[in-house]
Amino acid sequence: MREAIGDQVRIMTDYNQALDPAEAERRARALGAFDLEWIEEPVRFDDYAGCARVRAAAPVPIQIGENCWGVHDMCKALEAGASDLFMPDAGKIGGVTGWLRAAGLAEPRGLRLSSHLYPEISAHLLAATPTRHWLEYVDWAQPVLTHPLPVTDGHVTAPDMPGIGIVWDEAAVARHAA
Ligand SMILES: [Mg+2]
Known about the structure:
Layout: H1 2-5, E1 12-14, H2 21-31, E2 38-40, H3 48-57, E3 62-64, H4 70-80, E4 85-86, H5 95-109, H6 119-127, E5 151-152, E6 155-156, H7 170-177
Parallel strand pairs: 1-2, 2-3, 3-4
Antiparallel strand pairs: 5-6
Helix pairs in contact: 2-3, 4-5
Bound molecules: magnesium ion (MG).
């Protein structure tokens, strides 16, 4: 893949918790030559000690966070030194309040935060995050929104509307619900 797209495009890998720490270490070392942005969830999401072991051996940053419920889980991961990066899920971390708590933990540590799904909401949350990193983008909600989140040159522009700017296209919702 790196050969095909050249060195100007960032590549992230995501194992979705599929590996044990020993195999994750082996693969992380093998992937070290390909200038990856990160390796995501190499081991079971709550195996923070195992993830720390992979991190220590990996020549690539380790990313976790999407399965942490609230900042209590996030603190366990941070105390274990489980990752170089963190990507809370807007829902699981506790909505706006939980996200802002996570951003407060990340800022003094220089821990870069990316988002997990929900780009329409996460764009606003990242804008309020001093250590913001990447917005994970999916277009799943676009067919039922009156103001979809446009992507231009790799960036989104959140709609300038009250709240988080989500207005359901009721006709589209009814069409999809039928
Ligand atoms: Mg993931």
